[in-house]
Amino acid sequence: MIHTVLCPTDFTPLSDRAMSLASRICRWYGARLVLEHNLDALPPEFLSVEWMWSEEQKPSDTAREQAAEQRLLSDVERLAKDFPCEARLTRGPLELGLVAVARALSVDLVVMGSHGWSDARHHSLTERLVDSAPCPLLTLSHETQAERFLSATEAEPIPVLVPLDLSAHSRATVADALELLERLPLRLHFLHVESPRFETGAAVADFGRLEGLVPPGRRGQVALHIRSGKVADQILAAARDLHARLILMGTHGKGALARLLTGATAREILHRAPCPVWFEPPSRARASWPLAG
Questions:
Q1: pTM exceeding the 0.85 threshold for the entire prediction
Q2: Is a pLDDT exceeding 80 seen at residue 236?
Q3: Most buried residue, 110, 154, 185, 266, by CB count within 10 Å?
């Protein structure tokens, strides 16, 4: 169940789109929306020219705080007509502030935009939160058409792609996908990507394990897919082929080996997906629910 949604904003158009998506989710679930702004952050388009400002030209700390507070209060006043809405101002490292707010308020979902890949000049907050968020993270990029997921009325079930690696973590991913299916007009597509050198017998066995994740009463609403090749490429190709409006997938731990094996895949999906991406955090893995082998 989604009771509280957290949406960080830096007042850019991308953040406005994330806020719109978060608002839509709050309306569906009757949930509370919390808007968060970090006073120490500057919008990405200003980072490269910050050095050009003289100390006299830079807005004072008090002025920036007042402007941010006024903007947040304006958004809260506008949105609170439809569902409970409040705001939080934070300071310090972006990731720590956001995670602290999420934990303190028992947030069920974080919705935010991604400004692009990490590089020497830009350390992607969204990439870091894929690993560290204490709850599911719903992301969208500049290319994402958030308005297509979901509109108020739908004549046909909405395609949602659910990549599964058949680890214990898949149980948590499936649980959230089925929870969405309870409330929204969806068609789930469970996808498992095999190694390019997979054997036919292994593929048949994995198809059976994939099928075992579908409750009997939901089999008419879930399609099963097996593909082979590079994991990220196959997930993205399936999303395009199925016209998916959401990708819902799990991520694994923060250790060096986990980053090596799965971090690159998660980052590629985050930045290249043609639709919003819902990431299940490592903390949601239920190791006590091993998949039948």
A1: no
A2: yes
A3: 110
